[in-house]
């Protein structure tokens, strides 16, 4: 044990002897580890926010879009054609076991106004079940009722942004708002959700009964999408397949023709949403790996220089009884110390940089504790790998030749 502590003290003295060189050598490792921590923080934060947003869609959700991703050889895109009817929605809820709720969805953009205030926003036509499916509570007033849906009443539930823009400093519930010159009574205000992963304002919307949207706002006879909720997560895939079969039958689509609709479950949507996050993880991980490699090369280079400069010192130590193993350990300890301190500095810079990024740009960051430990262990491993050859070279020096070295 005494021998080990003596070796560590000697290594420490050697590193302090050239402080600037030691600091510059550690800088490569600091940058590499900081890059790893930053990459992990950014990608994990983005992934967590995407998962949170997917979860905010509700539990056990399937989305049915009108239009096919590729119809008749022409790229159409989801929701590109009104191929879904209210009868389709009723058939899904009536004929497919495991479906607990549905909400036909009619989307549009419109200018809304109240008094001398106006605002361009998104209008959603939904059913009463929408608020339960999305698990989106109304914090002021109440949601519209089934009677409002059946009668196509002119009632609306608004987001916090609409309340702030049209009724600053006032309670919006009970007020009248015009959508394309049609007066709607505000019956409730949704709980604020803030920005989405893409940076859009989730509270900038107006929700009205889908019948009101079809008859009074858009004059439409079809819906662009349907939200379907199943009783259990295990029913997502079977129900998705049954919806596809049912709609193909109802739309009289033969085997050789493409679907005129698209069905996606929550898991598929999550995988598509996180695909970009995975790509970014690989890119940032590659950059971080290169940075660590450069840091390791820097350590190897400086240790080789150190062996050359201290050849006579090595010869003296061997002459008074030091073994080759002691010399090997000494230089390995120096290399690992360089990389470990650099690793700690990199962790501090990486965490600090991630925090600043999150503070000034509102970009979500999340650093798992396990990755902090992995970064520290990786930096020490890189130091040991980089320092082994110079240490081995030092341990193999001939003591007589070393003493003669000038």
Describe the structure.
The chain is of the alpha+beta class. The chain has two domains: 2-53 and 274-404, no CATH class; 102-228, no CATH class. The chain has helices spanning 2-17, 19-55, 86-95, 130-133, 146-151, 160-166, 210-217, 236-250, 266-309, 311-319, 324-361, 369-395, 399-404, and strands at 61-66, 70-71, 74-75, 99-114, 117-126, 138-141, 155-158, 176-179, 182-190, 205-209, 225-230, 261-265. The strands form two sheets. A six-stranded mixed β-barrel has the order 4-5-10-7-9-8. Strands 2-3 form a two-stranded antiparallel sheet. 38% of the residues are buried. Mean pLDDT is 82; it is low at 71-79.
Features of this protein?
13 helices; 18% strand; two-stranded antiparallel ribbon; 6-stranded mixed beta barrel; 406 residues; 2 domains; alpha+beta; single chain
């Amino acid at each position: 044990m005494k021998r080990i502590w003596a070796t560590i003290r000697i290594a420490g003295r050697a590193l302090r002897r050239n402080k600037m060189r030691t600091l510059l050598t550690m800088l490569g490792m600091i940058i590499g580890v900081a890059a790893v921590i930053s990459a992990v923080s950014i990608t994990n934060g983005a992934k967590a926010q995407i998962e949170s947003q997917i979860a905010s869609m509700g539990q056990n959700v399937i989305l049915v879009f009108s239009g096919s991703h590729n119809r008749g050889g022409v790229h159409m895109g989801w929701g590109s054609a009104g191929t879904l009817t209210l009868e389709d929605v009723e058939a899904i809820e009536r004929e497919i076991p495991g479906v607990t709720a549905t909400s036909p969805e009619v989307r549009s953009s419109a200018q809304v106004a109240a008094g001398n205030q106006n605002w361009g926003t998104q209008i959603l036509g939904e059913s009463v079940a929408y608020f339960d499916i999305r698990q989106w509570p109304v914090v002021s007033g109440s949601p519209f009722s089934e009677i409002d849906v059946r009668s196509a009443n002119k009632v609306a539930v608004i987001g916090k942004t609409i309340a702030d823009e049209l009724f600053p400093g006032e309670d919006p519930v009970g007020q009248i708002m015009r959508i394309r010159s049609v007066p709607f009574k505000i019956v409730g205000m949704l709980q604020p959700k803030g920005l989405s992963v893409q940076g859009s304002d989730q509270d900038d919307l107006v929700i009205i009964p889908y019948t009101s949207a079809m008859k009074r706002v858009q004059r439409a006879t079809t819906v662009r999408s349907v939200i379907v909720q199943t009783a259990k997560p295990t029913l997502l895939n079977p129900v998705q397949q049954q919806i596809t079969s049912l709609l193909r039958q109802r739309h009289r689509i033969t085997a050789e023709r493409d679907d005129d609709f698209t069905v996606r479950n929550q898991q598929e949507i999550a995988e598509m949403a996180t695909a970009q996050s995975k790509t970014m993880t690989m890119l940032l991980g590659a950059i971080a790996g290169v940075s660590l490699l450069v840091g390791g090369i820097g350590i190897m280079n400086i240790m080789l220089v150190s062996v050359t400069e201290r050849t006579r010192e090595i010869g003296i130590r061997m002459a008074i009884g030091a073994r080759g193993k002691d010399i090997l350990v000494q230089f390995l300890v120096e290399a690992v110390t360089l990389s470990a301190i650099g690793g700690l500095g990199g962790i501090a810079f990486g965490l600090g940089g991630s925090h600043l990024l999150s503070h000034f740009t509102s970009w979500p960051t999340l650093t798992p504790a396990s990755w902090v430990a992995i970064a520290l262990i990786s930096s020490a491993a890189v130091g040991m790998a980089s320092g082994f050859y110079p240490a081995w070279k030092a341990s193999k020096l001939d003591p007589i030749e070393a003493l003669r070295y000038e």
